[in-house]
Automatic annotation (TrEMBL):
One of its GO terms (molecular function) is DNA binding. NCBIfam families: PRK10917.1-3, PRK10917.2-2, recG. Keywords: ATP-binding, DNA damage, DNA recombination, DNA repair, DNA-binding, Helicase, Hydrolase, Isomerase, Nucleotide-binding. It comes from Candidatus Woesebacteria bacterium RIFCSPHIGHO2_01_FULL_38_9. The keyword Hydrolase applies. The lineage of its organism: Bacteria, Candidatus Woeseibacteriota. This is ATP-dependent DNA helicase RecG. Signal peptide: none annotated. The keyword Protease does not apply. Residues 274-430 form the Helicase ATP-binding domain. Transmembrane segments: none annotated.
Amino acid sequence: MKLSSSIRTLPLVGPIYLRRLEKLEISTIEDLLMHVPNRFDDFRVTSPISKVQPGEVVTIKGKVESIKNIYTHRGKIIQKAEVSDSTGKIQISWFNQPFITRTIHKGETFAFSGKADLFDRKITLVSPAYESMEDKQDGIHTGRLVPIYPGTSGISSKWLRGRANYLLNRLLAINDFLPEKIYKNFGMPNLFQAFTKAHFPENLEDAQRGKRRLAFNELLFYQLKSLYRKNEWSKNKVAHKLLLDKKVYEEFLHTLSFDLTRSQIKAVSEIFEDLKKEIPMNRLLEGDVGSGKTVVAAAASFVSFVNGFQTVLMAPTQILAQQHYETLHKIFDKFKVRVSLITSDKVKADLGKTDIFVGTHALIHKKVKFDNVSLVIIDEQHRFGVEQRAHLVKKSGRGNRAPHILTMTATPIPRTVALTVYGDLDLSTLDELPKGRLPITTWVVPPQKRVGAYNWIREQITKYSVQAFIVCPLIEESQVETMKEVKAVTVEFEKLKKIFSGLNLGLLHGRQTLKVKNDVLEDFREKKTQILVATPVVEVGIDVANATIMIIEGAERFGLAQLHQLRGRVGRGETKSYCLLFTESHSSTVRTRLVALKGSMSGFELAELDLKMRGPGEFLGTKQHGFPELKIALWTDTELIKKSRAVAQEALDHPEKFPKLIEIIESKSIVPN
């Protein structure tokens, strides 16, 4: 039996258990051993029966003198047993578990672990764990640190414990894929010891050592995957060579109505260096809300344009694509750059004479031909599938030649995490806001202050002729709104119309057609509506300078970075702006998170905090952002991330030193086809 063997080769795993294990993402022997305990019951204290005291958590071993079901007047069943050893007898009780009398038999020797209490004035072990000692001296369910696993319906910790023990007794010949020098230098056990310590440790320090080695393995394979992808990409030839004329670029800068920030200048410089190379660029532009990613993308597009080639920009939503289309039109107004919009609903401009294609995933599916694409820009790239991105790149390339790729995200990701998850990409960061942006005052609004907040909002709108957003959270964590969620925001919209009677409200959600969305947005931009009620699916791409108030309902349901992004929809004009976080939660943890938002304007600081408090799936707003979920390792463990990256790079540079690791890499299909 090998680590790569299917879980179906394990005894007691039939079709029913296969389906259950699938829910835990367990399909191989290795998957099961990587499904480590999340805690342990400490049953290490073993006591003679006569010494057991009420309140103690102990393990006793003895002969079962009697066991029976007792039926109460209320229709419940109590299981009572009497167990003896050479020092005395003790009573054991369970509640409503009649099957126990068919498992534990009179005259047999068993071990019992649990808490002693007084029951019917007798010292009693109440609902203890148990296992037969007829054929063995030591147990796995009693008398030790007993592993408790994350489970699912129909799979108990006891079942997982038994299967892990069965495997570890039969996988004594696990060959470690790392050279001994590597794991010993890091103070880690070998692979077999790591599995054993993680599941059945002698002490909690052992458990941590075992889990740390397995966490290292997990990170190592993520790093290898990224580095292999980067290595494979470097074998591509660029589709079109781009030359940069500094005078023309300076002319472009002079047409802008603002100066670039220091980080924008640095990012543009890094991109321009890439565009001159024979190997196509593959860069991630990570920017805080309002940091000006579109202008950086426009600068790259301008280089493509002056060289006589095309750019393709793909955005995840129709609204964001529309926003980019309009922004690029304004930026390139004096240069006669032809921009086309392609969405599932409409196509703007003459596609035969296009310099920049802007669109949604319709860019992939519509019969639009790209003749001379030198640059592909993918915005909010985590919202697209790997295949969608690959399809667009392939469609834009020329045979075995690839275009330059610039991917962008407004979701701040801590650098150590970004270098692991997006290790195949070069990283540019925009970490400052353009000059003149006023700080946004942020308030946490508890239930008792809601009415007062509504009155203040009405006063601001009527007195200063400003506008407001009200964002309602998704009911379920998903990238796509369900009809249930659309209904919920529609109900909230009707309620808010009564609260803000006399004001005009607009409703925006992801299930509307592009025409309806555009009409709603146009009414908001032209100040025909004072309040826009929306779902977070449309959190990006709405830029209205007169909107100075952002109200976020159910703020506790959002990650800090997503709250920060939503807050970034206001504060884009010259008027003081506000963000009100409405929450019904009384949790101190929730309050700590929301108060942190009050004190910080940096999305990167907030991402670091949310990473520590809630994990990566949360700081990205949802768990469906294409962000890898780690089973054992933690994204906060920067030391282990750095170590795993160093080993991955060494393995890539000197594969002859890592023959077993390279063999596993190839068997895991880490190397791209």
